[in-house]
TrEMBL record:
Residues 1-79 are annotated as: Disordered. Belongs to the major facilitator superfamily. Folate-biopterin transporter (TC 2.A.71) family. This is Biopterin transport-related protein BT1. GO terms for cellular component: membrane. It is a multi-pass membrane protein. The chain crosses the membrane at residues 190-209, 215-239, 251-270, 282-301, 336-358, 370-389, 401-421, 433-457, 469-492, 504-526. Pfam families: BT1. It is found in: Membrane. Residues 60-70 have a biased composition (Basic and acidic residues). PANTHER family: FOLATE-BIOPTERIN TRANSPORTER 1, CHLOROPLASTIC (PTHR31585:SF0). CDD domains: MFS_FBT.
Amino acid sequence: MATRARAGGGESARARVEGSSARARLGRSGGGGGGVRGRRTLVSASISLGRARGGTRARSAAEKESEGRVTDGASDRTSSSIVEAEIVDGEVLDVMGRREAESSGVTSGTTLFGVPMSPEVYAIALVYFVQGVIGLSRLAKDFYLKDELHLGPSETAMILSIAQTPWLVKPLWGFLSDSVPIFGYRRKSYLLLCGAIGCLGWSSMATWVDSPETALVAFTLGSLSIAFSDVLIDSIVVAKARGEEQGVSGSLQSLCWGFVALGSIVSSYFSGSLIETYGTRFVFGATAMFPLLIAGASTLVQEKSVPATTRSRDGVIGDFKEMTGKIFKVAKRREIWAPALFVFLYQATPSAGTAMFYFNTNELGFTPEFLGRVSLLRAIAALGGVALYNGYLKRVPLKKMFFWGTVAGTVLGSTQLLLISRMNLELGISDKVFALTDTAVLTVLGEVSFLPVLVLAAKLCPEGVEATFFAALMSLFNAGGVTSEFLGAGLTKQLGVTADNFDNLFLLASICIVCNLLPLAAINLVDEAKDEPTSIDEGDLESGTKKA
């Protein structure tokens, strides 16, 4: 998408991986944050992304990308958290088809977003808030790699892209929690573990990490914490929504959406000023505190202990093979792989986002505090994009949305060439005003262009394996966002764009902008998607829970 190279520099397609989130968030554009177009995108609760048998497919709002959001990854998310459990005939199934244990919990008289509050609802709110506020580290990562490790734009893009690997294997995390309980629990124990992993990763960044290799490990631990906890909390959201009327279910999703947005706005507001005043390691140390909220949320989850079993390792491996076999069996259908291939290509065009971040900071002199304000504007504009899509565009045919979104993104995205060539000054527009305006417009367009991806993904999921296949599709689309960053990093290196040499940045940005149009050659693949839900053979619906 042409909206990727944002003037603020900090948002990159990798952010979308971080979330979704952001993931997706995640699970979009630029160089430091928010999710994979790649970014897991925050989706309004009233947007219907598909259907379960006999009704509307439930989804939770939030990829953030996670930078997944994507997004740590989550969230400029705006990460949109997608439901990882499936609803069949009114019952919730986990990724292997087993029924989720009914959540019990005492509700109080307090309501929030129209949702009666209970310990589990507080847990849900905490985890989604963390998916948003973890974005506090987004700018710090960019400045740390640039100023303290003295890496160039191509090396920075590579490290931040590889660190999003946990967002590419989301079905694995769902399978692991369903099949291998820890201390008798499938959700609570893993949430506690996710909190500890995230705290370890960011604490390491705050103290002893001093090389690109160790920074990569620490960033990956941070992504793993958010990606895994996203899968876990989504399953709890679905269990809570089961059996509720549509209004209550929608209110629950609005609560999720609201807490991600709150966390994202808070982190955007403080991120730049904290870096400027206290430095990046202080910001990493502050970020390390937030995963502890995930660990704390685990104590609020109402989950029945799973009896100990004698299942062997071979039995678990057999289940995993059966699950992956189902995914590949379904994916071989043309009406599924063809549209999925288009979206992968749509996500995978090269991005100049990280190079733009270096240009904005080293050449234009944008300070961390100003870039923090740009991130704040981006978070608010993203909400505007979601509202615009939900209010006026959600019924526009997907093919038309993809086509015009790409064309508009290419035209408007080319305005960054004015900034690179300094023509904005000749037009009487200061660099900061140009950056803020460009960010607002492109962020709204980026959200409007990404939400159809989620709609199409839901349409592709056959009945019987909805959750598993949806998670697999999100991983594929996140992989497109990571590919975008890899290609951008390669072009940046080949063209000799470095931290202090921007002679070929105009050419780099121009190539990326033109490449955004290339997926249109395959846009007819979208027509292969069926409007009605497909189904799989009865034999494929077996849960795969054979005992060894």
